[in-house]
Amino acid sequence: MKQFALVGAALAMTLLHSPWPEQSMRSAHAQEQLEAQCPQGEDWLECRAAAGDPLAKYRLGRIAYEKARETGDFSKPLQIGRELVAQNDRNGERLLKMTHLQLSWGNHEDYVQAYVWLVEDRQAGIDYLDKLISNLAAEMTPQQLAQAKDLSGQ
Question: Which helix (H) or strand (E) holds 97?
Fold first, then answer.
């Protein structure tokens, strides 16, 4: 009898914390429809991202981030990270922070642009950027720093 009571309690807790069956069916159905609209193959990820899938956008951002570490152009991962943060996506926050670190270490091909981007994001309310901006400023020439401050309105 105790076994049935324990099983019943576990089942009740599971039902309390899971979505209603029709909600999960609708979600699964909506997911299937979205996936069906995207062709299989190498363009699938781009299609999913364009359809608004935040995980696909994040994956594209990570791919862009890895490429940027080789090329020195962090504009694409920054853009994707900002878009995802605007959607309150936690992965987007991670991507943006990783990109901010790269910018502060001087790994972007244009120090002036990197400085301006960091200042823009600080002005948008990201609180950890003061130290990162200082780190980048220490790597810049006086001319670069003056130009960056002028462009960022500082």
Answer: helix 90-104
Measured CA to CA, the distance from residue 115 to residue 149 in angstroms comes to 8
pTM value? Answer: 0.74
Task: Indicate the residue type of 23.
Answer: Q
Q: What integer pLDDT is reported at residue 12 of this predicted model?
A: 46
Check residue 109 and report its DSSP letter: S
Task: Give the CA-trace dihedral at 4, 9, 11, 16, to 10 degrees.
Answer: 160
Q: Where are the domains of the chain?
A: 35-152
Residue from 53, 48, 80 nearest 64 by CA: 80
Nearest to 44 by CA among 75, 55, 80: 55
